[in-house]
């Protein structure tokens, strides 16, 4: 018998693997949280499957998502990334990733970890929603609005409320698996 999954992942094996093994599972380590911030910011305006298919290229291009290295990228690295056909070659998003890495470390210094900061918006534990269908899953919430606003105030870019809500889902701050999904 085939597993019942959230409909958004369809029949694509990569999407199903991501859905089954990552989406909605709580992430508390700063390294993985930063990886998803990078991927989500590049996803803005594109489909998530496009980003998933390029994930390993992003990992290689952005030094395994090492925010300490990324924060120090010189102009030459930006030009190198602009020539990398394996990633999304958007100068503004590349520049934002470098800036966001710097801001990420500022938040770490202030809160002890980025995880401590971001999870504070949901009281340190996942919000478990029980949607019957995907139509019941919002694109944004009051919390994603607040978090996006706070990130913007701190100088982060390409992290509006919709992207932030997708990040919250990806890192398990919110569990939006539909009620009949096998992962529930």
TrEMBL record:
InterPro entries: Adenine_glyco, DNA-3mA_glycosylase, DNA_glycosylase, Tag. Pfam families: Adenine_glyco. PANTHER family: DNA-3-METHYLADENINE GLYCOSYLASE 1, DNA-3-METHYLADENINE GLYCOSYLASE I. This is DNA-3-methyladenine glycosylase I. It comes from Cloacibacterium rupense.
